[in-house]
Amino acid sequence: MRYALVTGASGGIGKELARCLASRKWNLLLVARDEKALAELAKELSQTHQIDVHYRSADLAKPAEVESLVEWVNGLQVPLGVLVNNAGYGVWGAFETVDWQAQQQMLQVNVMALLQITHRLLPLLKASGKPAYILQVGSLAGYLPLPYFNLYAASKALVNSFTRALACELRQHHIHVCLLAPGAVATRFNERAGLKDIPAAQRYAMPADAVAKAAVNGLFKGKAIVMPGYSNRIMARLVSCLPKGWSMAVVARIYKPSENQTSH
Ligand SMILES: NC(=O)c1ccc[n+]([C@@H]2O[C@H](COP(=O)([O-])OP(=O)(O)OC[C@H]3O[C@@H](n4cnc5c(N)ncnc54)[C@H](OP(=O)(O)O)[C@@H]3O)[C@@H](O)[C@H]2O)c1
Description:
- The protein has ten helices and nine strands.
- By secondary structure, the protein is of the alpha/beta class.
- The chain has a seven-stranded parallel β-sheet with strand order 3-2-1-4-5-6-9, with helices on both faces.
- Helix 4 links the parallel strand 4 (80-85) and strand 5 (132-137).
- The model has no long low-confidence stretch (mean pLDDT 95).
- It binds NADP nicotinamide-adenine-dinucleotide phosphate.
- Residues 8-14, 32-34, 58-61, 86-89, 109, 137, 139, 182, 184-185, 187-189, 192 line the site of NADP nicotinamide-adenine-dinucleotide phosphate.
């Protein structure tokens, strides 16, 4: 059986994606910074599903660590059939007040690491000679410019757009590329983004296991986009029909930090 690489597998959606792939008997390569969480998940999944699981701690905000990760994957000399670029996070706040380094690092993880890993591992995905799969985790947030969540939404707009184009380019090579574009999901995302005091951001959050299940089903069924949740699909439609200025004004009212709220 071939291997699936999952970034951001230490928690949230990535951990559930790894579980879904394991239940389909994919061997796994797990990546994130939290080595202890990866080790525990590797033990759980290898014992439960009798699969081979390797893991590696890597900070994807550092290009050199992304490169070392790619070398590690190539060095394992295992057949790679699935690549899941899931690692990512948001930084909330007014653009001018958020620390510049924090914004740069987010872009590095959400965008540059995803592109670098995809570019560098495509030869390995092609090498197995069988159909291969790439799942890129974008977001519903990439469908509309979001005031006070500005660069996060822009980073996901890039992922969303890039993924659709790449799917078209790779179809002839039998590599199926799928975009997962979730709305709110109950993970550590909001806490990490500094959004935990904004109740609207967490309302209607879907469980991570349901999102992961829909994503993996959609990936292997050859879907171009998986957007779990009926209300999220309606939201995406509305956003494309309503005047952008009006939608952004609503978002700005929800996300604008109050005087006593601090962003990153
Ligand atoms: N939750 C939502 O509402 C939501 C909605 C739409 C899209 N998404 C997207 O879904 C993906 C997963 O997020 P989540 O909701 O599952 O959040 P999460 O629970 O915070 O998980 C984020 C994952 O990314 C990893 N990660 C973060 N920074 C990293 C770094 N510098 N290097 C390596 N790994 C890093 C984390 O691992 P370590 O901390 O161990 O490194 C963790 O495994 C993200 O791309 C996010 O943008 C989430």
